[in-house]
Amino acid sequence: MKVTIDQHSGFCWGVVRTVQIAEDQLVKERTERNVYVLGHIIHNPKEIERLEAKGLKTVSVDDFDSLAHRGAKVIIRAHGEPPSTYRKAWECGIEIVDATCPVVTKLQERVRKFYDQGYQVVVFGKKDHAEVLGVRGVCNDECIVIKNVDEALAQIDLARKTVLFSQTTMDRPTFQAIRDALQVRIKELIVDTMEEIATEFHAKDTICGQVSGREHLLAAYAAANDVIIFVAGRASSNGKVLYDVAKAANPRTYFIEDISELKDEWFEGAETVGISGATSTPQWFMEEVKKVISDK
Ligand code: SF4
Q: What is the mean pLDDT of each run of 10 residues along the chain (296 residues)?
């Protein structure tokens, strides 16, 4: 069996940046102070374990009061946070290290700008996803978060001037269906493209190019292999999107979070096995998966 790793999979640059910031802080503080991260640093249990072994501790905003007296340092992860988190940290005397992905920061800025101009803000995303909580926070929780066309038509005031955004890791076909449904019904609709960063991030909308740019490459890779093992954390949004892309191109695609989930029968008669992953799947873990499959 020939086993390869998809060269376009693994950490996106936003996650590389966040993990690097955490590693730097752990080295810098060493014995001086504990380094905390607000929520799991990325949606991957293996990488969380690795960083926790180096001393990173995961906390929630509810822990800020108890951290206050210790002069704690808290990292904001790539998903970003609402303004209320920064306020609370300031009140508690907590030092924030902001590792919000610049793409998410830009999205938050754009949402705030249109909200301030009186637009009805619509976000294609998951209401309780960390990134969306941050976006909701910058517009006073007055945006409408929808997951499909039906929800959009049921909840949006079609008479208002409206701007449509997407959580950065959603799937583009559903976004386009929502856009098309709204475009014929709303007189003043803006589909925000974050144009000033479009070249840099290949954005046609606010879906991150680090996710959508991988879709056609992954589909080709999946079709070229007999079996695909897709490795990601189950909480990863782009993991779900990219897994669906691979599964559509190759029905013998299997999702795992841990090596113990591999099943021998998946590989029966297979000559080529491809390993791919989400933007939060570490390369070192895909290498471990590769080794286990190669030894079969
Ligand atoms: S997928 Fe895009 S928006 Fe999300 S962390 Fe990576 S670079 Fe940033």
A: 95 92 91 88 92 95 85 92 96 94 93 94 94 97 97 96 91 89 91 53 64 89 98 92 96 97 97 96 96 94
Q: Name residues contacting ligand 1 (CB within 6 A).
A: 12-15, 78, 101, 103-104, 168-169, 208, 210-211, 238, 279
Q: What interhelical angle do 45-53 and 13-29 show, nearest 10?
A: 20
Which of 100, 124, 143 terminates a domain? The answer is 100
Strands (E), the chain: 2-5, 35-38, 56-59, 73-76, 95-98, 120-124, 144-146, 162-166, 189-191, 227-231, 253-256, 272-277
Could you say which DSSP state residue 189 is in? Answer: E
* Nearest C-alpha neighbor of 281 from the set 251, 250, 227, 240: 240
Q: Is residue 196 domain-shared with residue 270, that is, in the same domain?
A: no
Pair 147, 78 in one domain: no
As annotated, the active-site residues are 131
Q: What pLDDT does residue 206 have?
A: 77
For residue 103, report the distance from its CA to the centre of ligand 1, in Å: 6
